[in-house]
Fold Thyrotropin-releasing hormone receptor.
Amino acid sequence: MENFTTLPELNNTLGNWTDYSIQYKVISSSLLLLICALGLVGNVMVILVVLTTKHMRTPTNCYLVSLAVADLMVLTAAGLPSITDSIFGSWVFGHYGCLCITYFQYLGINASSCSITAFTIERYIAICHPIKAQFLCTLSRAKKIILFVWAFTSLYCVMWFYLSDIQELVYDNDITIISCGYRVPRKFYLPIYFFDFGVFFVLPLLLSAVLYGLIGRILFLNPLPSDPKDKKRKNGQNNHNANDRTSCKNSRHSSSTATSRRQVTKMLAVVVILFATLWMPYRTLVVVNSFLDQPYLDSWFLLFCRICIYLNSAINPVIYNAMSQKFRAAFRKICRCGRKSSDKPATYSVALTYSAVKDTSMVESTDHFTTELEELTVTDELLSDQKMMFPDPCVYEKVNFSDA
């Protein structure tokens, strides 16, 4: 973000210009470079994992890919230019660089907010309205929503081509600094700031708070409802042993699905909470400076705001790796850090997942239930003992399933 502060009005004196200290240049450039490098690598890996791994192509993960693309845009269009600003203290990318970089900054920011809102709504429908989710939470529909999000934000952000421009700021000590700012007076761009603040920050967070509250009530307070198809089939069984086997399978599947849903929801809730927390300093600064005659311009606090924003775009892959076993295993595979036999667990896991779908007759269309059932994976402890014999069918309840 190049526009952390409001530029002074043309009729006001700018005072004397002082360059950043060596300490500030070293610390700021080092931190920004480290965060941007880690964020670029991590988000690229998220995209590669979902695009190259078939069982990772779920509606939820499609929204995470959209979020990763938006974060990449923020890091490249805002993070990397901030490094040059910290070193030189002046804009070095010229007129067209100012227009394009400003456009892609706001495009990435708004697209990330819309992607977070989209996967929050998707989670709400999938968990709180499972019948509707069979038709609404599909992979094809997720792709259409993502396409609409990017088309809408791309058109909305076109206005920044007309609002931004470079300016030559001549200070009292005869030093000229090039800045990428606004070509319109403050009274015209402040309403746009507040509109962005309401539509792409406050509204998504309020909606997320309400929806995750409803999701939490279903997942953590109410038991997972049983499927009516299972009840009909169970009543139609005449053999007592067959009923026992079906009951064991249904119990194991319901428990595994509930655990997976809780873990995935926790992971996405953490993403939303960090988004709100890390964006709060910058959003607050903009609002406060909008009402001050002399805006708050402390360079170290501005650096803190920048770091929070870029850290938000860089930390999501770390969250996926820490809270999702499937992402963690896929990351290892991309990095080639796993053993050569690491492909076998994935094959066995997918086969078991589809077997559970087939045996319990839970679905008629796998397009929706890739959202939930493909998030079940078999742990390494099971795979190490997979040669053991299980005389009792109910022993399969001991299988430990994990999240996406």
The first helix runs from residue 22 to 52. Residues 22-341 form a domain with the Rhopdopsin 7-helix transmembrane proteins fold (CATH 1.20.1070.10).
